[in-house]
Amino acid sequence: xxxxxxxxxxxxxxxxxxxxxxxxxxxxxxxxxxxxxxxxxxxxxxxxxxxxxxxxxxxxxxxxxxxxxxxxxxxxxxxxxxxxxxxxxxxxxxxxxxxxxxxxxxxxxxxxxxxxxxxxxxxxxxxxxxxxxxxxxxxxxxxxxxxxxxxxxxxxxxxxxxxxxxxxxxxxxxxxxxxxxxxxxxxxxxxxxxxxxxxxxxxxxxxxxxxxxxxxxxxxxxxxxxxxxxxxxxxxxxxxxxxxxxxxxxxxxxx
Length: 255
What we know:
The protein has six helices and seven strands, in the order αββββααβααββα. The protein is an alpha+beta fold and 255 residues long. It has one domain (2-95, 111-191, 202-218, 244-254): Glutaredoxin. It has a five-stranded mixed β-sheet with strand order 3-7-6-4-5, covered by helices on one side. Strands 1-2 form a two-stranded antiparallel ribbon.
């Protein structure tokens, strides 16, 4: 029994970023019958249920995602957002727009890295594996899209833009914390404590109530799910990509 646990314990040796943990082990026992297979949230269109039991035997990475972050970085992002997302339907302003005064600089936006270079790449490169994206608007109101059209058009035309389309399933926008949190996240958090003790800008950009120690702290937290449908590792938003990839490969080797 101990020998079987050693690889998992080694995987939970967390990289420290700015002195803080980037992941923790979850603690659901093998004797527990609860799993993600018990849940069937709606897809991004809100029309069909995604039976997570259909992913039985696969490794999953469940990620709460948001597409907006801050307003557009340049005129293309801003005008495409107006044209395709909100108000959409080809809208073009007939009044002058000034150049935005603050920009992000030369470094690639973190969302671009996560979506285009990481989550899509994972879903493309690994067999018996799937990313499950969960849009959520509880952190900085960074996913305000009202429906699948707004959310998907923002990804395609604004950020990351350039025709981007996620190659992994997206669920209908839901709450991951608070009074109306989805039962899937109640389950995941019940076995996986938060790697962070503090909250990002608590009370300022957190849009739910009440707050609990097990809460998701921000967009792009991740839960790694094993082949039995049970969470084994929970990652903070800024967990190193190579660390996540290594853990995924270890679980795939154990299938």
